[in-house]
Amino acid sequence: AKSLSRRFIASKPLFGAPSVVQAVNGVDLEIAEGETFAIVGESGCGKSTLARLLSHLIEPSEGTVTYGGREISGLTGSDLRDLRREMQFIFQDPFSSLNPRMTVGALIAEPLRIHRIGTPAEQRAKVAELLRKVGLRAEHADRYPHEFSGGQRQRIGIARALATGPRVVIGDEPVSALDVSIQAQVVNILEDLKDEFGLTLIIIAHDLAVIRHIADRVAVMYLGEIVELGDAAEVFASPAHPYTEALLSAIPIPSTGARKVQTKIEGDPPNPISPPPGCRFHTRCPYAEDRCRTERPALRETAPGRRVACHLAETLSLDGITGTEESR
Ligand code: SF4
Ligand code: MG
């Protein structure tokens, strides 16, 4: 089958489906071939909705999503099947996303059967190869998911996602359900496989620590909007949005387990269906001024490649995390 080129563009504005009102309001972003793009924010911020829009699992009610220069909402038939084959998901909970009655081999081969790729013998060989790629053994194909640990099950989920030879893999909180000690292993596997297969990786996370070492670029979302977007290392070193600073302040220092600084936000985010007026973050922002309560900040370019939605982006001097702190 002919394939779409590996480039994804979501043009402004995108809106969520009616049940997720304003979940991805005014999102405007472009994801390039071969990059690892992270979308971070608290639960309910719209990051999963954004990923579903990108993969055509839901339709934008306004705006467009294009992939390879083509609008994906217009895809049908074999073009839509190609898109599904090229774009695969890894889900948060490896326990619930795997059918317990299917063997590991059948689970990994299922996408191959759905897309009619290869003979049964070729599918078995592919399963064995994929199991080895994720650090498991070919014999594991005959066993059932419950026989494996959480980390191993997520490796099985990764093998399954890679079965069709996708170009884009979307990980929706792929390691959130795992012990911290296992998270790095799974992230490392993802990174290795990304390099090996030339994947474009989109990682959704609520925890910046998870994506810190693998993301090329990061989009920080708050109440359905991107509030900061840029090169991941730059965003980590010098955040320009107070919400990003708050997320970074919650990253534990490895040696002590202590928080870097006191987390600067508290409480749950407001209801995204009726967000606060002005800047949506003003109810939790330690730097809020009068105009923040009435004037909505646009997502604007503050430096090459960096976009920030904060009135004070150029004047605040916010705390980031530098590379040297990693070794502490
Ligand atoms: Fe805080 Fe105002 Fe910036 Fe919003 S616009 S993040 S309330 S300083
Ligand atoms: Mg989610």
UniProtKB/TrEMBL annotation:
Q: What's its membrane topology?
A: Peripheral membrane protein
**Localization of this protein:** Cell inner membrane
Which family is it part of?
Belongs to the ABC transporter superfamily.
User: What PROSITE patterns does this protein map onto?
Assistant: ABC_TRANSPORTER_1, ABC_TRANSPORTER_2
Protein's UniProt name: ABC transporter ATP-binding protein
Q: Which residues does UniProt assign to the signal peptide?
A: none
Q: Which UniProt keywords apply?
A: ATP-binding, Nucleotide-binding, Transport
Q: Which SUPFAM superfamilies match?
A: P-loop containing nucleoside triphosphate hydrolases
Identify the domain of life: Bacteria
Q: Which GO terms describe its molecular function?
A: ATP binding
**Residue span, ABC transporter domain:** 9-248
Tell me which species this is from: Sulfitobacter sediminis
